[in-house]
Design a protein that fits this description.
This protein is an alpha+beta fold and 265 residues long.
Length: 265
């Protein structure tokens, strides 16, 4: 065998050994990662039709003192098919314990917005309510600040909160302001609704409470998305365990299918 052939053979054996070691290394990492997830299975949603609510805070809607203005709207006009779809959606929300019948003096109109594929999105026009309520100024994180925090990190794990705003219960005396009207009745939310101007700020405040002391150290939150970052795998497991434990303690849940485990070289 020529010297050149010997060198090539040695190089190939070294490459094969490196690949083998890397495969073993990755397999070990994934095994440890799976064990961690099994220990914290309660952090992930089990019944998608049964949202659970946090025990840390409630959504409160404040109207300025002395304001005698009551927001009242009649149902929007809709076709027979759209009325049927609205009624079906309302019944699903009722079944899942998210809304309840209302006798409020307040009401905002509910309607459907067409989506791709012939489907519709349920929307409530809270613009008039949003104009008069007292604003919650809790700031959202700036994306450029989030990105700058990842420098030098090698391991990342992203999670997505299940149900988002619906994981926050309403204050009893604030439910009346969330009332919405459809052609078949008046309903109000038992959980924080989408479309309300303060919902993003309130949810951000909730996540700051959940991640107090560790936010910006090894995890960041933007609305219902949380990303954990670490410089080593062992450290990363500790960080993930801390975040998952806090999610469980706050009575919140994650979408398992939306979680992503990533390593960058």
């Amino acid at each position: 065998m020529k010297w050149r052939d010997i060198v090539i053979t040695i190089q190939e054996e070294e490459r094969n050994e490196q690949i083998k070691n890397k495969v073993i290394h990755v397999h070990h990492h994934m095994t440890e990662f799976k064990k961690l997830l099994y220990r914290h299975w309660r952090a992930f949603v089990i019944d998608i039709d049964n949202p659970n609510q946090t025990n840390l805070l409630k959504c409160r809607i404040d109207i300025p003192e002395g304001s005698n203005k009551i927001i009242f709207s009649r149902p929007f006009h809709c076709s027979t098919h759209e009325c049927e779809l609205l009624c079906e959606h309302v019944q699903v929300l009722m079944k899942n314990g998210l809304i309840e019948p209302s006798r409020s003096q307040w009401s905002s109109p509910a309607f459907l917005v067409p989506k791709k594929g012939g489907k519709f999105r349920f929307v409530i026009d809270y613009r008039r309510l949003n104009q008069i309520c007292i604003k919650d100024r809790t700031p959202l994180a700036r994306q450029e600040d989030l990105l700058s925090s990842f420098q030098g990190m090698q391991w990342f794990y992203t999670v997505d909160m299940a149900w988002g705003f619906w994981g926050v219960p309403m204050e009893e005396d604030s439910k009346q302001y969330t009332a919405f009207v459809t052609p078949d009745g008046l309903y109000q939310w038992k959980v924080m609704p989408m479309g309300f101007t303060n919902s993003p700020a309130i949810f951000t405040r909730l996540m700051h409470m959940v991640l107090a002391g560790i936010n910006w150290r090894f995890c960041l939150v933007y609305l219902d998305d949380v990303i954990m970052f670490s410089s080593s795998f062992a450290e990363h497991l500790e960080h993930i365990e801390e975040v998952l434990s806090r999610i469980v303690q706050a009575n919140l849940s994650l979408k398992g299918e939306k979680c992503q485990f990533v390593r960058t070289e």
